[in-house]
UPF0301 protein K7G82_12645 (Sphingomonas colocasiae), 186 residues
Amino acid sequence: MDMPAYLSGQLLLALPGIGDPRFERAAIAMCAHDENGALGIGLGALVDGLGFHDLLRQFEIEPGVAEDRPIHVGGPVEPRRGFVLHSPDWGGQDSVDVAGRWALSGTIDVLRAIAAGTGPRHWVAALGYAGWSPGQLDEEMTRHGWFAVPANDELLFDLAAGQRWNAGYASAGVDASLLSPISGQA
């Protein structure tokens, strides 16, 4: 059986009935996927009651010119660890290039840069990440569970969290309202 192509730079969408409530209607920006495993940042749900200014203040950073945007639930792994998914026009101490399409940063320098107005032009902040061990996501892609679409700046940075799942499917010509949570067998 052929394994799917590596998914870095794609938006991974949960299919209805995925079987794990943590991933219902999930829209995950895939940042790494190779023989060592996979890592993505969830962009389909928000952390209740926490905004970007609150996060900055926890690090004793004045919000400066930063917009007070919502914080995303990046995933169930390390939910207290922060990440900023951003355009590649800024790079910091640990910024990682994601398929030449965007970057991922996880240190305080990106927070300071955004507050100062010298950070990336486009960005979303998240707590936690979704992670898969080597081969795990490849195997999950062969079953009913995930659908991958090319990610673009609008899907990642311009839409509200609650719109990404439907918009991701629409970008592939799929009407998500017609998807069934029940899979069949031939």
About this structure: The two ends are 18 Å apart (CA to CA).
